[in-house]
Amino acid sequence: HPAMDSPSPWRTLLASLIILMALVSPTAAPPPTPGEQAGALLAWRATLGGQSQRALRSWGNTSTLCSWRGVRCGARRRPVITGVHLRGVRLAGTLGSLDFAALRALTSLDLWRNRLAGSIPPSIAALGELHALLLQGNQISGSIPPSLANLTRLHLLMLHDNQISGEIAGQIGELGNLVSLDLSGNQLVGSIPCEIGHLNHLVRLDLSDNKLSGPVSFCPANNSTVNLENLNRLSLSRNNLAGPISKDIVNLSSLQHLDISQNNFSGLIPGGVGGLNKLTFLHLSDNQLSGPIPPEIGNLQRLKQLNLSANHLEGYIPTSLGNLTQLTALNLSTNELIGPIPKEIRNLVNLESLGLGQNKLTASIPNSLGNLTKLTTLDLHDNQLSGNIPRELGYLVNLEELNIYNNTLSGSIPSSLGNLTKLTTLYLCYNQLSGSIPQEIGNLRNLVWLTLSSNKLSGPLPSGLCSGGRLQNFTAYNNMLVGPLPTSLLRCTSLVRFRLERNQLQGDISEMGTQILST
Ligand SMILES: *[C@@H]1O[C@H](CO)[C@@H](O)[C@H](O)[C@H]1NC(C)=O
Ligand SMILES: *[C@@H]1O[C@H](CO)[C@@H](O)[C@H](O)[C@H]1NC(C)=O
Ligand SMILES: *[C@@H]1O[C@H](CO)[C@@H](O)[C@H](O)[C@H]1NC(C)=O
Ligand SMILES: *[C@@H]1O[C@H](CO)[C@@H](O)[C@H](O)[C@H]1NC(C)=O
Ligand SMILES: *[C@@H]1O[C@H](CO)[C@@H](O)[C@H](O)[C@H]1NC(C)=O
Ligand SMILES: *[C@@H]1O[C@H](CO)[C@@H](O)[C@H](O)[C@H]1NC(C)=O
Ligand SMILES: *[C@@H]1O[C@H](CO)[C@@H](O)[C@H](O)[C@H]1NC(C)=O
Ligand SMILES: *[C@@H]1O[C@H](CO)[C@@H](O)[C@H](O)[C@H]1NC(C)=O
Ligand SMILES: *[C@@H]1O[C@H](CO)[C@@H](O)[C@H](O)[C@H]1NC(C)=O
Ligand SMILES: *[C@@H]1O[C@H](CO)[C@@H](O)[C@H](O)[C@H]1NC(C)=O
Ligand SMILES: *[C@@H]1O[C@H](CO)[C@@H](O)[C@H](O)[C@H]1NC(C)=O
Ligand SMILES: *[C@@H]1O[C@H](CO)[C@@H](O)[C@H](O)[C@H]1NC(C)=O
């Protein structure tokens, strides 16, 4: 899972857990003998594939048990194994033949990123001291054994990126010490058990990329009114979850990261979301949400990413979004929003990506967008925007993608767009743009995709077109262009698609075709 590899909160969490694990001294049953433990590990190794035998060739001499590869012992007179850490060493086999009872003093078992298959044996419940179980990135299948609920000391349970199926049983609520639970990237079905709400130490919960369905609610543990009060990261994306965004979610007051995108949630976005004032990341995209965008979202002053795209949201874009000055990405595209682009958007000076395409927005493009100089992507396509293309867009020197096709924009193409030297994508088609195409457009040497078709453009094509040698798709059909084809275009070997019909252009297009075929 890419999210696991880098972020520092993860490291901090791990570090504090290690300290915690060091402080909590295991009590319980008599510790296993060295022979018992060595026997269990050697018997397991014997069942693993050949490559694994090589990786574990240091295993053998019982009197040096604590220096076997991946084996860690606690500080005791007799060697007692407290950790088995074999991350990414290509172990192939199953856990079925591992005698967990003989390793009952284990506090951490880390077999991350191997080639383990088969299911998690119910006998894993014997690891009563276990704080961390990391089995992610294997090919483990079968369902989560109910007996896992006996591992009540678990802080970390990482089973993501496997092929685990079946339902998540309500007993998971008995793992009351869990800090991080990641079951993402499996094939889990059924609903999310409300008992997850009992896990009051949980900081991070990731159930994304499964086949979970039904509504989401979290029930509080006995004698508690609050759910998941420490949860700061909740990812449920890419499932088939449905129903409203419940008050149980809106009440998760510590949330910093909330991603429920690509599900089937419906109903309104509750105004109470505006109370989650620690949020930096809010993705509700690709659901069936309807109604207006609640203005209270403007209270989320720490937001860096807001994605509400691909829903059925309607009404005006609230001006309060102009308060979200930390935003780097704002995506409201593919909804039914109406009215103008609010001028307050100009306050979002940290924006790198602005997506408002496929709505019903009207009026003109605000000149003040020219102040958002960090923008790399500006997408306003498929709206009803009118008026001129503001020449101020020429200040957006970091822009790589400018997509304003299928509006009712008129006037000429501002020559200032020639300043946008990083542009790879310039979609201006399906508008009412007139006048000649500025020569400066020919200077955009990084252009790969250029569409000018279905406008009222006249005059010649700019002479430098394709001078950067990157142009792949170029359309200018259905205009009133005249004159010869520029030689730079005739020599354009990168082209895979061009359409210039319905103009009065002259030149040997067949020669161009030959060039294309010959590459
Ligand atoms: C096992 O390790 C001990 C301690 O290092 C050593 O004395 C002994 O010879 C080793 N036994 C074998 C069979 O290698
Ligand atoms: C799990 O715990 C329950 C109740 O504490 C106990 O009855 C059961 O035997 C345990 N299961 C395993 C596999 O240890
Ligand atoms: C919660 O309370 C119910 C009934 O009072 C009881 O059966 C259950 O065991 C309790 N659960 C916990 C985790 O204390
Ligand atoms: C709540 O706690 C009180 C005392 O701590 C106890 O008497 C009561 O039974 C508990 N209620 C539930 C539902 O567990
Ligand atoms: C929301 O949390 C507050 C405390 O933070 C609590 O008083 C309230 O009952 C909770 N509401 C719901 C619906 O869970
Ligand atoms: C999504 O929910 C709607 C009702 O809100 C339902 O009609 C539709 O079948 C659901 N889609 C899927 C893929 O479950
Ligand atoms: C926003 O959500 C849409 C739909 O799920 C997705 O295609 C897009 O990549 C997301 N945008 C950002 C900036 O995350
Ligand atoms: C947020 O925006 C609204 C509308 O633009 C404004 O009235 C309000 O004062 C702003 N709030 C803050 C905290 O800046
Ligand atoms: C851009 O910002 C500057 C300084 O904040 C301001 O003076 C100027 O009017 C803004 N330009 C536009 C087009 O909004
Ligand atoms: C332009 O947008 C309208 C809706 O606003 C849509 O019906 C039409 O198919 C779009 N045309 C093109 C060429 O994308
Ligand atoms: C941007 O383009 C305009 C018109 O082509 C030109 O006058 C201006 O100097 C350019 N600005 C920058 C910063 O390159
Ligand atoms: C470019 O043209 C090719 C060939 O017609 C087409 O398959 C592709 O979708 C186009 N790409 C873009 C980004 O327009």
From TrEMBL:
<dbReference type="Pfam" id="PF23598">
    <property type="entry name" value="LRR_14"/>
</dbReference>
<keyword id="KW-1133">Transmembrane helix</keyword>
<keyword id="KW-0472">Membrane</keyword>
<dbReference type="GO" id="GO:0009653">
    <property type="term" value="P:anatomical structure morphogenesis"/>
</dbReference>
<dbReference type="InterPro" id="IPR003591">
    <property type="entry name" value="Leu-rich_rpt_typical-subtyp"/>
</dbReference>
<dbReference type="Pfam" id="PF00560">
    <property type="entry name" value="LRR_1"/>
</dbReference>
<feature type="domain" description="Leucine-rich repeat-containing N-terminal plant-type">
    <location>
        <begin position="36"/>
        <end position="73"/>
    </location>
</feature>
<dbReference type="GO" id="GO:0051707">
    <property type="term" value="P:response to other organism"/>
</dbReference>
<dbReference type="GO" id="GO:0016020">
    <property type="term" value="C:membrane"/>
</dbReference>
<keyword id="KW-0433">Leucine-rich repeat</keyword>
<keyword id="KW-0812">Transmembrane</keyword>
<keyword id="KW-0677">Repeat</keyword>
<feature type="domain" description="Disease resistance R13L4/SHOC-2-like LRR">
    <location>
        <begin position="312"/>
        <end position="431"/>
    </location>
</feature>
<dbReference type="Pfam" id="PF08263">
    <property type="entry name" value="LRRNT_2"/>
</dbReference>
<keyword id="KW-0325">Glycoprotein</keyword>
<dbReference type="Pfam" id="PF13855">
    <property type="entry name" value="LRR_8"/>
</dbReference>
<keyword id="KW-0732">Signal</keyword>
<dbReference type="GO" id="GO:0006952">
    <property type="term" value="P:defense response"/>
</dbReference>
<protein>
    <submittedName>
        <fullName>Uncharacterized protein</fullName>
    </submittedName>
</protein>
<dbReference type="InterPro" id="IPR001611">
    <property type="entry name" value="Leu-rich_rpt"/>
</dbReference>
<dbReference type="InterPro" id="IPR032675">
    <property type="entry name" value="LRR_dom_sf"/>
</dbReference>
<dbReference type="InterPro" id="IPR055414">
    <property type="entry name" value="LRR_R13L4/SHOC2-like"/>
</dbReference>
<dbReference type="GO" id="GO:0009791">
    <property type="term" value="P:post-embryonic development"/>
</dbReference>
<dbReference type="InterPro" id="IPR052592">
    <property type="entry name" value="LRR-RLK"/>
</dbReference>
<dbReference type="InterPro" id="IPR013210">
    <property type="entry name" value="LRR_N_plant-typ"/>
</dbReference>
<feature type="signal peptide">
    <location>
        <begin position="1"/>
        <end position="29"/>
    </location>
</feature>
<dbReference type="GO" id="GO:0099402">
    <property type="term" value="P:plant organ development"/>
</dbReference>
